[in-house]
Amino acid sequence: MLQLCTIYACANGTLGLNLSRAPWDPYPWVSGVQEKSNAARGGVRLGDTLLELNGVDILGLRISELANRLAEHWQSGAECVTMMVWRQQAALTSSEDAEEASHAVVSRKRAATCRTMQMPQVLSACTCS
């Protein structure tokens, strides 16, 4: 599901999230969200894939390029940033329990671990002798 998140500026210029991107990933994904941060308040979740920053597609951009764009954005005097993210699982409603939410996070971590463990095998299969 697509989700538009609005994150307001923090005094120190941080958003309260970490992004990760491998060279083969077309878009970065959220690898961490600090508790009670502006990113968390804006609706950003662990595992979200960042598609747009302030309405601009970020396909193929490096994390350092995104950081530079954010720095320029804050220097312009902006008070917030918008992020269009893709979320694999819809946000939980208040009627759903915390156990289900923790299961979703554990499942994502397991999937990431499996992909990481399989990567050397995939790379060795792609290596030319």
From TrEMBL:
It comes from the Eukaryota. Residues 4-70 form the PDZ domain. Pfam families: PDZ_6. InterPro entries: PDZ, PDZ_6, PDZ_sf. Coiled coil: none annotated. SUPFAM superfamilies: PDZ domain-like (SSF50156). This is GL27361. It comes from Drosophila persimilis (Fruit fly).
